[in-house]
């Protein structure tokens, strides 16, 4: 791991509605490049809201979110779209695979929105198809499935395809929002180990949101959102 800063948040405030208590008030959070962060917190504590702020989907009321030295809150919508496409990979809880595309096409998709990710994928494997195949192979998807519709895959297989899609073109930063919630414990651990392998090879940093405390020891850093969020409990009266 190196010491370059991947993410620096300062004095971040966000509320869903005016004149209502804030959902998030985070004085400071810094994540270094290469870190693998386990982000936890009770249901409704604001984990997805924070990810939405980091990815630029939600707009902060005030404060600073710097990723790789770029201040997200100052970028135009177009510049933010570009930044996201180039530097961020996502794995969602529902995977969001496109049913009318093949596995290879689903995995290659981010390279159609980012020239830099396309260039990296081509440099690694010569073609997008080959790089998609390489990642799917590393994530233990049998070759026989590559041309099947994604709707015929098991949940665990869909999840690994979603991971390959997030990893293609080696973005700096991978965000995974409860990607293992529909798997059993063994499958969760083996998925995370495959994911870590790819992240290590490509020096990709990871923020992984989960409710499952048994996964926590696998990660190099743990963040409890309630401990860094001054607005914690404002919605449900805990504080
Ligand atoms: N689109 C929205 N509009 C208004 N309020 C919202 C919206 N999304 C979330 N909230 C509120 O913001 C708070 C934080 O929600 P969020 O989804 O970020 O929590 P979470 O920690 O990700 O929860 P979970 O673990 O259950 O997924 C909750 O009180 C929720 O009701």
TrEMBL record:
**MF terms per GO, please?**
ATP binding; ATP hydrolysis activity; transmembrane transporter activity
One annotated Gene Ontology cellular component of this protein: plasma membrane
Domain (ABC transporter) ranges? 7-231
Q: What keywords tag this UniProt record?
A: ATP-binding, Nucleotide-binding, Transport
Q: Does the keyword Transport apply?
A: yes
| UniProt keyword annotation of Acetylation present | no
Q: Name the Pfam families on file.
A: ABC_tran
InterPro entries the record matches: AAA+_ATPase, ABC_transporter-like_ATP-bd, ABC_transpr_LolD-like, MacB-like_ATP-bd, P-loop_NTPase
User: PANTHER family in the record, alphabetically?
Assistant: ATP-BINDING COMPONENT OF ABC TRANSPORTER-RELATED (PTHR24220:SF611), IMPORT ATP-BINDING PROTEIN (PTHR24220)
What is this protein called in UniProt?
ABC transporter ATP-binding protein
- Which species is the source of this protein? Motilimonas pumila
């Amino acid at each position: 791991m190196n010491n370059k800063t991947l993410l620096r948040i300062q004095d971040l405030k966000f509320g869903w509605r005016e004149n209502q208590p804030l959902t998030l008030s985070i004085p400071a959070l810094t994540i270094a490049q290469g870190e693998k962060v386990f982000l936890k917190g009770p249901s409704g504590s604001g984990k997805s809201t924070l990810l939405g702020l980091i990815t630029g989907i939600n707009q902060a009321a005030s404060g600073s979110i710097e990723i790789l030295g770029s201040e997200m809150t100052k970028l135009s919508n177009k510049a933010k779209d570009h930044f996201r496409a180039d530097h961020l990979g996502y794995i969602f809880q529902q995977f969001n695979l496109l049913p009318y595309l093949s596995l290879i096409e689903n995995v290659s998709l981010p390279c159609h929105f980012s020239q830099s990710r396309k260039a990296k994928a081509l440099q690694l494997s010569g073609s997008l198809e080959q790089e998609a195949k390489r990642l799917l192979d590393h994530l233990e998807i049998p070759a026989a499935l590559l041309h099947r519709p994604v709707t015929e895959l098991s949940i665990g297989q869909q999840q690994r395809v979603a991971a390959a899609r997030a990893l293609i073109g080696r973005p700096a930063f991978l965000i995974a929002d409860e990607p293992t919630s529909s798997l059993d414990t063994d499958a969760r651990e083996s998925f995370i180990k495959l994911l870590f392998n790819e992240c290590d090879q490509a020096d990709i940093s990871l923020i992984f949101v989960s409710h499952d405390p048994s996964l926590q020891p696998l990660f190099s850093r743990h963040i409890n959102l309630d401990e860094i969020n001054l607005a914690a409990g404002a919605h449900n009266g805990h504080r």
